[in-house]
Amino acid sequence: SQLLFCLPVVSFATTAFGGLLLNIAPPVQTEKKLGVGLAGFVLLFVLLAVTSLAEGPVRRWSKVAWLCAGLILFATFLGSFLLYTHQLRLHTYEFPLNSGAIRLRGSDADWTQDAKNYVADNPKEPRDPGDLAFNLGPEQVWTAQSVEAASTQLLLGYAVVLFTLGSSLFCVMESVRLGLLSTSKKRARQGGL
Question: What digits encode the pLDDT tens for the residues 8-55?
Fold first, then answer.
């Protein structure tokens, strides 16, 4: 019965929010595709495992506890989402310009020697990431270690966003399920009298 309750909800959530989660995922210039792809499945597994371990008699406070946990996790999601979108703006840029293609960028403190030389030789040229990448080539602006660090930071931020959103939805669904279970038991007792 637990699985029958969860499957439609998970199917709906995946269909409704799958495009959003894919669109906010960090750009995949590096070898992080597997982590981005597996994050949702790992989260689903963990949440279903917690549900199966938590099976037991329904107590009134359980429903309230799940709901409070869901609200706290949702507030955490909102904060982590705002932080992640800031990090996404900080560590990505559009290249080629006006193409809509987003690329990872390293820290401005971690320019390659070629980029430092270019900026020193052309002090009046724009220093924004798109222009530097256009003039030097995207791989010649930041060090590989800096781009990798940005990628890791974005992947961790994405994992936190995914975890807090999924966990908040799970907690609220568990609260609803316990309420439905409690209501059906009350009806069964009333019908049996």
Answer: 555 555 555 555 555 666 765 544 554 555 566 566 666 656 665 555
**pTM of the complete model:** 0.69
Distance CA 85, CA 11 (A): 26
Q: What is the pLDDT of residues 169-193, one digit of tens each?
A: 888 888 777 776 656 556 566 665 4
Length of the chain: 193
- Tell me the HSE value of 3 on the side-chain side, using a 13 A CA sphere: 1
Distance CA(179)–CA(58), nearest Å, equals 9
Whether the Cβ atoms of residue 13 and residue 169 lie closer than 8 Å to each other: yes
